[in-house]
Amino acid sequence: MKQGRANCWPPIPIRIAMDYETYEKECAKIKAQNQELLTAFRAYLEASRLSQKTVKKHLYNIDFYINEFLLYEELQQPEEGVRKLNYFFGYWFIRKAMWASVNSIKENIASLKKFYAFLEREGRLDPDHYLDMLEEVKESRQEWIEGLIAYDTGFSSADMW
To answer: How far apart are CA 152 and CA 75, in angstroms?
Structure first.
């Protein structure tokens, strides 16, 4: 989706220590692989006869997730992201995405469900991991929404005590 320089140096240390140049090269490799994956995902979405507007929204959301969030603190492949939804929605997204809203959380959940269904269908994701992700979404969706509302209104869990 986005073109140009990888520019994904994280502001906090990554797990595997590497210098800036090495990190940028590895990040660029993953982004190139992710671009191929996004192209295949686009074809999958278009085959399901979704509108172009909906396809674009899903691609934008997934591009942000796999090329921004999953590369922000450490280098992670999209398949690894299936286990990161709680951190993404419960903390990272509401703090880093200025457009975060109840609607954008719902849209991102829909996009991620379609994306991980695609990866599972392609044999790139263990079916049990996909089912676990669906269960996590079901159990945590309302909590993520309430967390966003609390963050936007300045309410903290400490205020409850």
So the answer is: 29
Residue pair 62/112 in contact (Cβ under 8 Å)? The answer is yes
Residue 150, C-beta contacts closer than 8 angstroms, at least 6 positions apart? 156, 157
3-state secondary structure of 16: coil
Alpha carbon distance, N-terminus to C-terminus of the chain? 45
Q: Is the dihedral angle over the CA atoms 22, 7, 63, 131 positive or is it negative? A: positive
Instruction: Report how far residue 40's alpha carbon sits from residue 121's, in angstroms, rounded to the nearest whole number.
Output: 12
Phi then psi dihedrals of residue 84, to 5 deg: -115, 10
pTM for this prediction: 0.85
User: Residues 83, 96, 23, CA angle at the centre, nearest 5°?
Assistant: 70
Per-residue pLDDT reduced to its tens digit, 29-70: 999 999 999 999 999 999 999 999 999 999 999 999 999 999
Residue 99: CB atoms within 10 A of its CB come to 8
Is 135 in contact with 89 (CB distance < 8 Å)?
no
